[in-house]
Amino acid sequence: MSSLPRSSSGSSSGAQLPTIKPDDPFVKVVKALSVYFVDEFTLPSTFEQLRTTSAGNKIRVLVEYLVLNCTNPALINALLTLKWHFSTLESDDRGLNETRSNACEIVAWRFLTQVSERDAVDFCLYELPPTQSREESGDARGIDGQADERTDLLQQFRGQTSLAPASSARPGSRRIELLRSLSGIGIDPTDEEPVDDDEEGDPTTSFTGLNGLEIAAVADCKKFLSQRIVQKIITGIWNGDITFWQSMSAHARKKPQFYNKRKSDPFIRLRVPRYIKAFEVLFFATFLALYYAVLVERNPYHITPLEICLYIWLAAFSYDEFSEFIDAGSIFYAVDIWNGCDVIIILIGAAFLVTRYIGLIQDNNSITDTAFDILSLEALFMVPRVCSLLSLHPYFGTLIPCLKEMTKDFVKFMVVVAILYVGFLTTFSLLARDTFTLSKMSWILIKVFFGSSYLGFDIMNDINAKLGPPLMLIFVTMTNILLITSLISILSDSFSKVIAHAREEYLFIYSVYVLEASTGDRLTHFYPPLNLIPLIFIRPLRIFFTSEQLRNTRIILLKVTHSPIVAAIWLFEATNDHLRGTSRSFPSMGPGTGNFTGSILPSGKKQRPFLSDRANSKTHSGQFIEFEASNIPDPHSYSVRSKKENSKGSVVVGDNTDLEAKVTELSLKIAELTALIMAQQGTMGEE
């Protein structure tokens, strides 16, 4: 692939808009767009300046051009890939890379707002096909290009470039591979040596199989994911209005589509994220009940049936977490804060099993008591994990990013506290070597740090008659006044900074969860603890059965074991359809249909189905048509034709002259207000 053109020394006199054909490959689309961003954005601008001032004029020109002329399905993928590329380049003094990165993200979401919502769904969920046919035996798609039972939000690195030798792809190495590949998509304008076309491989093979939303999650496009149109699509996936499978068969193909209750297999509803979350909470509630039952029973002599059930639940939970980690990779697995609780629950459970086994083998009551003491620690993490459903609520979900960032600042600040504490502890221990031991002095200083200053004043003369009182006064002043006050100020400042973007953080985590739960290549998803059944009975058959035979076996087993769950889902949806009187009527638990003010819709106002608020969302255009003035019979009239009137040919015509005058007057007022704001900004800039 040839290297991209260099950035011009200044802005070009005329914008050279990229030429993108409908059938251009992904690599060509990325290169065409990168040339435009490198050549046209030569002055640093902040995100808000690009969005609200004249610095974003080139963005508006590009968006209008793409809406009217570009129908390439990989457009959003290319824009978000370039956003990642520019954001990963080495920072320059002028901040041009950050400017171009923000411009790519703004163009992506503004483009989606200008097209029909059904086209927006196609653009966002378009998966990048392989760039070229490969004969590698280790293809992750299995035979005949069909998806196997291994799901992966970020699918393993299928194509290796000349810059990266073939190796086994680990989940944790995915981001490294993407960074290495993206270094060849476009050139850094600060580089002087071009890349030889013969030495450069295709850098886009790492993105094969990823759709636009997945690339947005990889590229940390939090502002893009928080946009209304994008969240509407993600909420549609969460509710099951958008599905990726239509039938439960060995030859089923993964394809984003709108759910059709009459045509779709009912077992496909098992892949709906909202039901996965609901049964996950039910599983944890049962897990917690077994946990309490075992602790209350507390039999030190032998393993009881309740304890065996607890072991089964722990094994199913551990296997489900391991599968999720392998499927999603460490990058996305670490994004969800609740996965940290899951890992700790597994580690505590493993420690309990080991100590419990040793205590039974050695018939040692002390070790057995230690085992149950270790098990009692599970409540610290299992109870919050059951309540993790609250994190899907906007209010509670907004607090999690704030607490996460405040915890980071607290840990950093405690490094300074630890250094001062060790210094004073050493001094006081040496001065009071004949009076207090090291451990006792350590606890005294800890109590003083947490507010018991009177305790330090009581023993300061016992430490040393001369140096004790002044040193203790300095320690109390630094800890209770200086350090504590500084810590509160730092946490308050951190909270105020994070809360401004907490909604974006929350929607990002929510979006990643939805994508992990729905867009993988795994057709069959077994709910725990039923996931132990294929692990025990089907996995050993991989030695003897082909991939297609295994898939058929898993489908049969899924239908046998999950029939009651599917029946419960069907009954739930049927009940809601009957109560609300619409084919798609169950309310959304996601943020796409709600707001952060806590307002509730009136009971008489029914929510409309997904993608039903735009006139052009009822049809799939496939391409964008530029209407000519000759097609409009009368610019001062409009027509409304209902479905029943369509066949009769009756048209209702109304005069909108007054409306047109009001719109013109409003436009003039907006122009005057814009000029006033621009003048004020110019005055502030001069000052």
Specify the structural class: mainly alpha
List low-pLDDT spans.
1-13, 132-183, 186-201, 583-655, 682-687
Total helices: the number is 25
What share of residues are in beta strands?
Answer: under 5%
Instruction: Name the average pLDDT.
Output: 74
Domain Calcium channel YVC1-like C-terminal transmembrane: 284-575
Transmembrane segments: 278-295, 301-319, 331-354, 413-431, 472-491
Keywords: Membrane, Transmembrane, Transmembrane helix
Region (Disordered): 185-206
Q: How would you briefly describe this protein structure?
A:
With 687 residues, this protein is mostly helical. The chain has helices spanning 26-40, 47-52, 57-69, 75-88, 96-114, 117-124, 174-182, 212-218, 222-225, 228-239, 273-297, 305-333, 337-362, 365-376, 379-386, 394-431, 438-449, 453-463, 468-499, 502-518, 532-537, 547-561, 563-580, 643-648, 657-686; strands at residues 242-243, 257-258, 637-640, 652-655.
Can you describe what's shown?
- The chain has 687 residues and is an all-alpha fold.
- The protein has four domains: 26-225, no CATH class; 272-392; 395-503; 635-687.
- The chain is built from 25 helices and four strands.
- The protein has a two-stranded antiparallel sheet with strand order 1-2. The protein has a two-stranded antiparallel sheet with strand order 3-4.
- Helix 11 (273-297) crosses helix 12, helix 17 (438-449) packs antiparallel against helix 18 (453-463) and helix 18 (453-463) packs antiparallel against helix 19 (468-499).
- The longest helix is centred in the middle third of the chain and has 38 residues, at 394-431.
- The two termini are 48 Å apart.
